[in-house]
Amino acid sequence: MKFTPLARLPVFLACAVSFLSLTTSSPGIWPFSSKKKDKIAPMASEREVQESAAAGMLADAQAAHNDGNSGRAQGLYQAIMKQYPFTKSAAEASFQDALIIRHVGKMDDAFDAFQAFIQAYPDSPRFSDAVEKQYEIAEEAKGGKKQRSLLLLPMKMNATDVIGFYEKIIKNAPFGKYAPLAQFSIAEIQQDMKEKDKAIAAYQKVVENYPNTSQAAEAQFRIGSISNIAAQRSEDASNLLAARDALRTYIASNPGGERKQETEQILHAVNTAEANQSLTVAKFYQRIGKTKAAAIYLNEALKFGSPEVSAEARTRLAELAAEDPDGVADARKGPGQDYTALTAQNLKSRPEYVGPLAPELARLSQKPKMRTGDDGFMPIPLQEPTLPLRPGAATPGAGSLLPPVPETEKPALLPVPPVPNAPMIPPAPASGNKLPVPPPPTVKPAS
Fold this sequence. Notes:
By secondary structure, the chain is mainly alpha-helical. Helix content is 58%, strand content 0%. Among the domains are: 50-157, Serine Threonine Protein Phosphatase 5, Tetratricopeptide repeat (Alpha Horseshoe), CATH 1.25.40; 285-347, no CATH class.
């Protein structure tokens, strides 16, 4: 009995369905599965045997690789990864296999091979080398270099795929030396694609995440430059504000940067453009009689304007103050509007004008200053000075400024004068402790 091709089709489909169901229920028996997570780690005794066998295969693969037989070397590398995924030789085999794909395969395949190595062996000493190779591949894909293959066709990958390369590099080593370079390249790609908001956001990530790198300074300049170009193409004042903030931040954080002079030129152009816009708007409000609004925009023109714009704005502001002083005064109450004195030209003729303080009053109004330098001021001596002494006089004691007076020079005691009508007190006896008792008075007998 012969089967036609159509008759064999149901049998083939049945076998395929049964085989797929079997492999799905038991993923470990899939013959082509080389994932490390599907394997079971060997015991210590078995690991030694596997390490020895894998090392022997790795030596053969490296010898074939050095001889130029990359096909045989790649086959041995893949056999080591499949049979002995938990050995040290498997990590080296995975890296060498990615190198071969890098030289003979496509860029995306090579990038994926290094990505598989990074995910399977993150503790390998080859980790940094793999990230470096990924960055090289991404840079070649970004620049559209020729494919490393026998055909040598020009290679220009999709911008989204290249950005995906850089994003994986940042995720693999967010604090490595290639992370700021990758983030900066993402911003450059989006800038080339004319995606202003995405490019500014990508450059801002460079500034925030990697502030101490040279890429951060350049990214800050790019933010101001992109905003300036957008401001020239539109009437949106927010672009001028963003450009000014970014350029000022660059000058403040990089006072000796290579782009300082160029930044100052762009910043001057931004200020002049905003001053001209403010002056134009102020003229419109002045024409329709909106004094307060006109004064606000004239202040803006004075704040950021060139000498020509500032002169015209100051003249118009004086005219407004003479015509409507109350309206101009209301404009000064707004936040950030005290850029200049909003006064009329005949200021000295006003009754409340008193002029500046006299120099004497100005000096009296100043607070006394603390002594900060050597101005001839002598402090109080910490030791007592040596005083002159009379010849033969004793040395004064501690804490005394005058010498003691000799006994011969002490003044004599003067007699105390008697107090009138005071009772006489008899002198004390020469010896004995008892005082003499006077005799009793004599009593005459009565006659």
